[in-house]
Amino acid sequence: MVEKKEEGEGTGIEFDHHYRKTHRNLADLYFDGNGQAAGIFALAIGIKLNLRSPRKDWKNTGKGNPHNPFYLHQLEEFGKFGVLFESLGMVKDKHNTKKTFDEFLTGGLSFIESNMMDEEGNLQELKDVMPELFSDD
């Protein structure tokens, strides 16, 4: 069963247009050009490291349509993430699921860019901050 969209959620997940090249490089380098997979990867980093980037702090909201810098995926296909965010205490006052996604995705892309993880073979920082992903246990 698909979670009903919250009022005002829009139709897609967005991120700061400033990270568009970072997102594309990541997709091309590690995900065979699949932007959705790269976005989910960045989102997971943002959630795991609790990195938020509020829209008011975004560097570039895009040209032409400032509220839709880049559509990543239809929110309906992400299931009940609103329930998950709420249970983890990750929902800010007056934020819906979409805003929460947008902030964590942009936060993850910021981390990826600042650690140059969108460049060939540069995943050491990820290993340093999330060693549990690389353990043999």
Secondary-structure blueprint of this entry?
Blueprint: H1 20-30, H2 35-48, H3 81-87, H4 97-114, H5 124-129
Summarize the structure.
The chain has 137 residues and is mostly helical. The chain has five helices and no strands.
Tell me what the structure shows.
With 137 residues, the protein is mainly α. The protein has one domain (17-131). The chain contains 5 helices and no strands.
How far apart the termini lie comes to 35 Å
Strand content: under 5%
Total helices: the number is 5
> Main beta sheet: strand number and arrangement?
none
- For the CA atoms, what is the radius of gyration? 15 Å
Q: What's the number of domains?
A: 1
**Helix-strand makeup class:** mainly alpha
Order of helices and strands: HHHHH
Integer average pLDDT: 77
Quick one: overall form? Answer: globular
Strand runs, count: 0
Q: Spans with pLDDT under 50 lasting ≥5 residues?
A: 1-8, 64-73
Helix content: 40-55%
Properties at a glance:
137 residues, mainly alpha, single chain, 5 helices
